[in-house]
Each structure stands twice: as structure tokens, then as C-alpha cells.
From TrEMBL:
InterPro entries: Split_barrel_FMN-bd. It comes from the Bacteria. This is Pyridoxamine 5'-phosphate oxidase family protein.
Length: 149
């Protein structure tokens, strides 16, 4: 995995990717490009995404594994604007309950019993998407807030 950073970017990739941010998966379809906003888990230099029965992106990944993922950590109150862009390939894998639970706990908290019932009921009819990045572009586009006078 090649990491490309803007000059002076001290962004810690692991720290940003541990946050409950939204990833945008860009895939190809015969009708044109598609974008899917998703939750993700970053483990062992791979992004993992849950695909449920009604999702169409697993089919697109099977047809065209080359894709891109964009993640933004933005906070208007502090001027934080970090962009991480991935390019690589994805593969549809069998559902792994333990991995899916780690992914969901990142967004919903550690108490599975407190999760929305639709997330508690995920099972083997679902899949996991394993995205393997070839390149990662890390950009710190943060800005200074206007000073109050």
C-alpha cells in the first residue's frame, strides 16, 4: 500500500480511521458510476464494509472489483478538514459475525443489546466487502477559523 501525503501533513491514518466516519464507496455500473455512503472497519490495512440483502454495491464489486473510497473528517467548529482517498480493489467475502460486530460497535457502541434491532439481526444472508487499498492519499485541508474581535 502506497501512502501519498501532502507536504507537512502529520495526519495519523490509524487515528482518523478509528473514528465513526462515513466512507463513500465509488463503483462502476453499466448505467455509470455509483456512490454508496457506508460505515467501515479498518483492520490490518483493509477496509471492511457490511453488505445487506437489499444492497446493490456487492453486485457491482463482483462485476468490477476496482473502486475508490473517500473518507472525510470534518468539524466546522474547529476548522478540521481531513480527506483520505483510497484506490484499490474490493472483494465480496462471506459474512463474519465477529468482524461485523466490531464494525457496528464502532458506530453503535459496545452494548449489542442496545443496538437498533435491524443491526442485531444481521446474519449469514449478508456479506462483507474487503477493500484492499493500492494507494492512499492523505490530505489535511484544515483551516483557521476567523478570529473574533
Amino acid at each position: 500500500m502506497k501512502i501519498i501525503r501532502d507536504v507537512g501533513t502529520g495526519v495519523d491514518l490509524e487515528t482518523v480511521l478509528s473514528k465513526p466516519l462515513v466512507a463513500h464507496l465509488a463503483t462502476s455500473a453499466s448505467e455509470g458510476p455509483r456512490d454508496s455512503p457506508l460505515w467501515f472497519l479498518w483492520e490490518k490495512e483493509r477496509l471492511w464494509i457490511i453488505g445487506t440483502a437489499g444492497d446493490t454495491f456487492p453486485k457491482r464489486v463482483r462485476q468490477t472489483p476496482a473502486c475508490a473510497i473517500g473518507i472525510v473528517d470534518f468539524d466546522a467548529s474547529s476548522g478540521t478538514f481531513i480527506h483520505i482517498g483510497f484506490r484499490g480493489t474490493a472483494e465480496v467475502k462471506p459474512f463474519d459475525t465477529q468482524k461485523a460486530d466490531r464494525l457496528l460497535a464502532k458506530y453503535l457502541g459496545p452494548e449489542r443489546a442496545a443496538w437498533d434491532p435491524r443491526f442485531q439481526a444481521l446474519g449469514q444472508e449478508n456479506v462483507l466487502i474487503c477493500f484492499q487499498p493500492e494507494t492512499v492519499v492523505v490530505r489535511d485541508q484544515s483551516y483557521q477559523l476567523p478570529s473574533s474581535t
